[in-house]
Amino acid sequence: MSGSKPDILWSPHHPDRYVICDSELGLYRIGPVGSAETKAGTLPLSEETAATLLAINSDTPYMKCVAWYPKHEPECLLAVGQANGRVVLTSLGQSHNSTCKELVGKEFVPKHARQCNTLAWNPVDSNLLAAGLDKHRADFSVLIWDISSKFAPETSVAAEKIRLSSVDLDSSTVVTKPLYELGQNDACLSLCWLLRDPKLLLAGMHRNLAIFDLRNTSQKTFVNTKAIQGVTVDPHFHDRVASFFEGQVAIWDLRKFEKPVLTLTEQPKPLTKVAWCPTRTGLLATLTRDSNIIRLYDMQHTPTPIGDETEPTIIERSVQPCESQIGSFAWHPSSQNRMVVVSAANRVMTDFTVFERISLAWSSTTSLVWACGRHLYDCVEDSAEGIESMIEKDIATKMRQRAQSKYGHDTVQVWRNHLLAGGNDQCAEDMELKLQGNKQSVVYSGIKNIVKTSSGTAESRRCWTGSDRQTDVPRYHSEERCLALRLCGWISRGPDIDVETFLRSLEQEQEWERAAAVALFNLDIRRAIQILNKGATAEKGDLNLNVVAMALSGYTDEKSSLWREMCSSLRLQLKNPYLCIMFAFLTSEPGAYDGVLYESSVAVRDRVAFACMFLSDAQLPRYIDKLTNEMKEAGNLEGILLTGLTKDGVDLMESYVDRTGDVQTASFCMLKGSPGDVLKDPRVQSWIENYRNLLDAWRFWHKRAEFDIHRGKLDPSSKPLAQVFVSCNFCGKSISYSCSAMPHQGRGFSQYGVSGSPTKSKVTSCPGCRKPLPRCALCLMNMGTPVSNCPGTGKSDEKVGLTRENKLAQFNNWFTWCHNCRHGGHAGHMLNWFRDHTECPVSACTCKCMQLDTTGNLVPSDSS
């Protein structure tokens, strides 16, 4: 290899030794830095490893290729191919084995001198050594030598004696008669023995890849191609071979040898080496000339149907073991993804490990797993309490628990869904008011659109109730504002604005502060004081409420009073926001209620109701618009009260989903929107489909079906057309559709007893062509005959089948058949048969029908 780039060979039986092949052979031992094995003057390969030079062999000049003997004994035996075609056996070890002494120095000489390009030891019969030579018109290019043979020159071969005498060698160590001669009048550039059969040799000839069989050397299997260099067999898949030509790599399947199964991306520079990773399945490394990177091709195989010609998926990436140009590399035979590279210029060696790609996977039950190489890791918290609290907070866990409790399916009392979601109040009950509206335009609109259409607003001045002060407070009334108050839950239906019912409900919920604030906003200060006193004396009540009531009782409307000054300065120290806005209201000027309207801790519905009562027509729309934008930016679902189920509501819901990931709530809410405007929005469709996929991932197939039914009721356009029907084997028409078109007949499968019709109509022929329907393999009755009419079914069975569920859908009467053997019958009969049997009920049929159904073994998680 003088003048050429170096090469590396790992020892097949010593995982810590390798040979650098250059103008001479150097044997190195690799070990950790600072160990007893590494001495002073060692060569550092990485931060953890270093190499120690053990031996040098410079007895074989003009090296072109080297191959390491594959067996343990003799140790460190190498075959060296030279420029003149000779193959010399040499050693780098101090072995005293007699076999090694006999082999070292042995030469195998071809008839005509020419360059030896490649060598390959037989992995099973290790006495066989294949050599690939350049072309000679009167000689073979593939010679297979038997290293155990001895040369005994005959006296009649005078020319052979003269040729051997021209070199000063002992004739007893020279072999000139190869065991096999292959590839006449051709050149061999690369060789490898096939691992699936030690008698097969794959050779990269001048213009083709050829497979030679030593049992019949007169014939060969070949394919014409330019990719004839560097042939190498995948150690994990013995029928897969890689070869290259210039910058292109071809992957071959020996079972289908007509053409490459895969051609990798062509590189701009010629390739110098390709090598399969011995520890990793399907990982191929390639090196181009004058390059400092190694390209890796990871071939991922996915199961495909039989006969489907699909190429394997290739994941390509590059690694850079060192800064300088790489002369050669070699995979470590046992350490996973480890290689040693040697630079082309100064022969610097580097120990490098190719890190695996890390694949993450979330399970549908909130488990995190990642794979790296051959290892699979599960993410586990240090403390069990920590992971349980995290799982409980996870939105996927919440959605799963809600789905199990039929969250979102109660369309009569909508507020119950709020309780299923873990809420403790009934604020969502007010949604019913929308659904019961008289005007179609108002059903889906929010307060934002309602107040914009407000007209005929009347301003009234009302005095305080229960106070000696006669100050008038301006308030505003209109039909739209009353509707907004009803949507906020403050008043009930009717012409009068009476909040007493609302106050009683708040007292029952023990929301004393909120009830007092609502009473105060309705200018009933005595009622507010009464509520606070009641809250202070209640069980688990706050005694400080008496102090607040006492402060309220001293209310005065004088602007310069000490009471107003102290309330303005001390109200922010109150912890409860409703107590804070009560004093903010009392100390504010008419029309300037920012202390109430912009208190973010107060519920949106209460702030909106307050605004509808005390803001003018000019102030109210501006405040509602500003509050709506805040709700949309924050993704606060309370803003649905303002936006309604409109386009603005979709924008708000988008922010909510981006913040929480709760596609479940988004799907159910948007299903109640206007079908024309909201449900056709691609964002809404995406949320609905994602939620359906989640239910499928959790194996909540029944819940998913219920959701689809619920969706079909609210959005008729989402109902899918019939996709599966039973057709006649003779005329091809749909049996169910044909029957539904006939007069005086039931629809669908009802005439076959599927719907549990009490008449049990019996149709055993195709309505289109009148040909008989197939017979059940077990009862031998024509399909269409109800199970209860079949022989062997007594009256007791018939009575059992009259339950409500069976009347709705008698699955036992459905058509069912195996897609493999085409045998079948009534579904009930088939299920009973396969409870006790594995093979098809038809005699002489060995099909295991039920085992072919992979989904039949899965049990829905919601089947309880």
UniProtKB/TrEMBL annotation:
Subcellular location: Lysosome membrane
Sorted UniProt keywords: Lysosome, Membrane, Metal-binding, Repeat, WD repeat, Zinc, Zinc-finger
Record-level GO BP terms: cellular response to amino acid starvation; heart contraction; positive regulation of TORC1 signaling; venous blood vessel development
Sections of the chain in a coiled coil: none
Transmembrane segments: none
UniProt GO cellular component terms: lysosomal membrane
GO terms for MF: zinc ion binding
Signal peptide coordinates: none
InterPro entries: MIOS/Sea4, MIOS_a-sol, WD40/YVTN_repeat-like_dom_sf, WD40_repeat_dom_sf, WD40_rpt, Zn_ribbon_mio
GATOR2 complex protein MIO zinc-ribbon like domain span: 728-850
Domain spans labelled MIOS-like alpha-solenoid: 399-614
Keyword Metal-binding set for record: yes
PANTHER family referenced in this protein's UniProt entry, alphabetically: GATOR COMPLEX PROTEIN MIOS, WD40 DOMAIN-CONTAINING PROTEIN MIO FAMILY MEMBER
Family label: Belongs to the WD repeat mio family.
Protein name, as recorded: Missing oocyte, meiosis regulator, homolog (Drosophila)
